[in-house]
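Q: Structure tokens for this one, please.
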Amino acid sequence: MLVILFEMAFLIVGCIQNRTVELKKDVKEGRESKHLSHIDSAYPEIKDTIRLSQIADSLFYVPLQSTDPYKMDGVKKLQLADSFIFIQTPGSDLFMFTMKGKFIRKINDGLTTCFGFDVLEKEQLIFVMSNKKIAIYDYEGRIKKQIRIKQDWEGIGYCIAGIDSSSVAISLWNNGIRTARLMILNTDGKIVKEFPNPETFQSPHLSVRNASAFQRSLFHYQDGIRYHPYYCDTLFALTDTLLKPVFIEKKIFKVPLEHRLEYVGDEETFTSYCVKQQAYATRFFESDRYIFIDYRLGYLEPILPNYLLYDKSTDSLFNYKQELVFKNKSLHFGLYNDYDGGLPFSPAFMSGEYFIQSFSAYYFKEAYTKGRNLDNGHGTEHYEIKSNYPARKERKKPLDDLVKRLNPEDNPVLMIVKLKSLSK
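A: Here is the predicted structure, written as tokens:
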């Protein structure tokens, strides 16, 4: 019996050591990449200079057509592909629109619940993840294949990225005891590669609601896939064999493991800690020219967003930290919109060379025409939200016309910014 226990302990220690070695190997090989950018507190930055016109090549709005007989309850995830817009709603529906916002179809109509999705443009395939299975659809909404999840994952994450027609990457919630944070699955349901989770812990307070706030981020970049653990300061490139760091940012203090909500399990304590320590979670967006970093206190929506923008073409770093300015009766919850004088821009999604934000039709119309009433600490006052200062006056009229046509009960409106490229 002692021999068996000794052998089991040896195997466990061996597995942990192997995972540690594998992780260090991933980081070591990645840091040797000539494409790695490393930004720390000594890196020079230009403060409070980001304006929408600085990064925008063009801007357009897409009011989404009615999805009757389906009710659209918002936008949880969005992807542009092959001149189409694919939208996952909070209610786990997956809709397909044209780039002008015309409704085409509901992809998962009565067939599967959409917990997460990804579109492969070249193959024109849609990966839709639900509990314990992944359904692969074509653009006509027909299921081409279903992948059964054979392993017991104790609940799966919501982030998925198709690698090709035969394999998919899935990132997982960090529930504390996972040995892997990311895996590659083939279409037979077999795990062909696991990437170790370096942040294991034990928490008696873990809840699915809290854990689900820490969705791991996977997105396509050029011909590959990027991966960013939600609290991490490193953006990785995913290859067949390793995670290769491509951007490391150590200027802003991230929420450490022992203080995360998924660890302490107390939202009030977590919020107080993040506000007091100015501890942030981060989201990375990357185009061919920019790396854009969105900072949020914990996982919470910020009172005002804070951003870093790294311009690869000039090796410049721009800081955009907003403060409440009550004197001029004007507030901007996002990048100052000097492109067409409209609402501020706070990107929630990225697809290729496009940043996208969604608004409810009600908020879009109300905020543009009336502004907002906010508590400034001395009572509720009225504030302007839009900038009203377009770079070119002719850009403002199409926006004014759109707002006039909008019905507050309409489906959401998308604000889509095409980014400047390296050549501009």
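A few notes: The first helix runs from residue 2 to 31. The chain is about 15% helix and 35% strand.
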